[in-house]
């Protein structure tokens, strides 16, 4: 980038793709391009098999009991909207409460705002703790007393990096009769997730943040919950039979996948899961923890750079996301100067305006975020870019 080695530190936005994933897309189009479920000929059977295999790989990876619990959607955003539009319409009525937190991505805010508006429900927020590092337990308990119908929480914040104890949150929410959705966009790519152990009702993720292609993601939901939910879209593939006036929905998971699927995306997602399995999610987590520790230490030692106040200090409680600000310099200028050194970072409100502008009181923040292919040298390059920013702005 700009004649320099690309230092890609915007992994919370999307990840780079291994050749295996790109090859999987190429192979599908060049060797067995056909629609799935419909053909009785070889290449259609192969496409169907590869697509279903991908779901099985994901089910195994996240601890779902079978592929019936894995719905392929476009991304995390669509997964959450699907829940709000189906389960939400059935279960959230006038005056009911919906509980989210102040650290949510817009994807886990707007669908609930829309549902609350449609059904005259109330949207409540769990506040951050005093250090702006995680969620306040007192605030959570206070909000639970309102008996929300659903608690929808990020597993890992894309701004603060905070890892929320979603297992404990789920237990407490279930004790009050609430359902739980975990937004796993920033956890599933970076750490071992076990939905059975978490016991959450819904879990949403995006393939593009975990080495897979864009346009494919998944909603995990407990089978008994999905059984009671109506389909969101009607059309081909989601039916068992159709008459002039009515239809019988298909079995799970196909009931929720109307029309021709993102076949190439599903298959390539399977290749991404194979890759992640090969490296091991525990190793990835360990590697990112080391990088995060090094980054927090390096950045916090630079005069005028603020890291603390934007997430936990302890890397046990933090994913590979480090937001920072440089006194007197706008984050967009920071990101532009980084770019001139070949270092790709994100600057802005990170699709979390209630958190960044509201709670943290910042117009925007700069953010570096890691993945398995980053190394210490990448962080050193970021540090040098910060020094360049300070030199240019004389601060
Ligand atoms: N939730 C969190 C915590 C995220 O970080 C993101 C994306 O950055 C999303 C949801 C939305 O993901 P997508 O744009 O893939 O739907």
Account of the 3D structure:
The chain has 395 residues and is of the alpha/beta class. 40% of the residues lie in helices and 15% in strands. It has 14 helices and 15 strands. It has helices at 19-31, 42-62, 76-85, 87-91, 110-119, 137-144, 166-175, 195-198, 223-228, 263-279, 281-300, 331-340, 353-359, 376-393, and strands at residues 7-8, 70-73, 97-101, 122-126, 150-154, 179-183, 202-206, 217-221, 239-242, 247-249, 305-306, 321-326, 343-344, 346-348, 365-369. It has a 7-stranded mixed β-sheet with strand order 2-8-7-6-5-3-4, sandwiched between helices. The mean pLDDT is 97. Bound molecules: pyridoxal-5'-phosphate. The site of pyridoxal-5'-phosphate (PLP) has 13 residues, from helix 3.
């Amino acid at each position: 980038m700009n004649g320099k080695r690309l230092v890609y530190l915007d992994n919370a936005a999307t990840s780079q793709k291994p050749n295996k994933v790109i090859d999987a897309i190429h192979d599908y189009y060049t060797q067995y391009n056909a629609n799935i479920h419909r053909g009785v000929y070889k290449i259609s059977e192969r496409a169907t098999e590869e697509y279903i295999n991908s779901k099985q790989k994901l089910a195994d990876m996240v601890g779902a009991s079978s592929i019936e619990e894995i719905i392929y959607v476009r991304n995390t955003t669509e997964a959450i909207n699907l829940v709000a539009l189906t389960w939400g319409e059935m279960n959230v009525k006038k005056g009911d409460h919906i509980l989210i937190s102040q650290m949510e991505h817009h994807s886990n805010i707007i669908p609930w705002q829309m549902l609350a508006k449609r059904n005259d429900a109330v949207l409540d927020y769990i506040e951050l703790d005093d250090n702006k590092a995680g969620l306040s337990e007192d605030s959570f308990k206070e909000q639970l007393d309102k008996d929300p119908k659903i608690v929808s929480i990020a597993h890992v914040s894309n701004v603060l990096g905070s890892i929320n104890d979603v297992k404990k949150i789920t237990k407490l929410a279930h004790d009050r009769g609430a359902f739980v959705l975990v937004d796993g966009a920033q956890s599933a790519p970076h750490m071992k997730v076990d939905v059975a152990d978490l016991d959450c009702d819904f879990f949403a993720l995006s393939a593009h943040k975990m080495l897979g292609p864009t346009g494919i993601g998944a909603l995990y939901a407990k089978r008994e919950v999905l059984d009671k939910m109506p389909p969101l879209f009607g059309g081909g593939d989601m039916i068992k039979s159709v008459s002039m006036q009515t239809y019988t929905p298909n079995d799970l998971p196909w009931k929720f996948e109307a029309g021709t699927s993102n076949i190439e995306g599903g298959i390539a997602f399977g290749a991404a899961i194979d890759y992640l399995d090969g490296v091991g999610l525990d190793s990835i987590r360990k590697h990112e923890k080391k990088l995060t520790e090094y980054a927090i230490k390096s950045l916090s030692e630079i005069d005028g750079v603020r890291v603390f106040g934007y997430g936990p200090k302890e890397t046990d409680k933090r994913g590979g996301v480090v937001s920072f600000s440089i006194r007197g310099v706008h984050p967009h200028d920071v990101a532009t100067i980084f770019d001139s050194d070949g270092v790709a970072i994100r600057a802005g409100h990170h699709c979390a305006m209630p958190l960044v502008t509201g709670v943290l009181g910042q117009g925007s923040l700069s953010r570096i975020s890691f993945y398995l292919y980053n190394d210490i040298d990448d962080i050193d390059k970021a540090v040098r870019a910060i020094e360049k920013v300070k030199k240019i702005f004389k601060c």
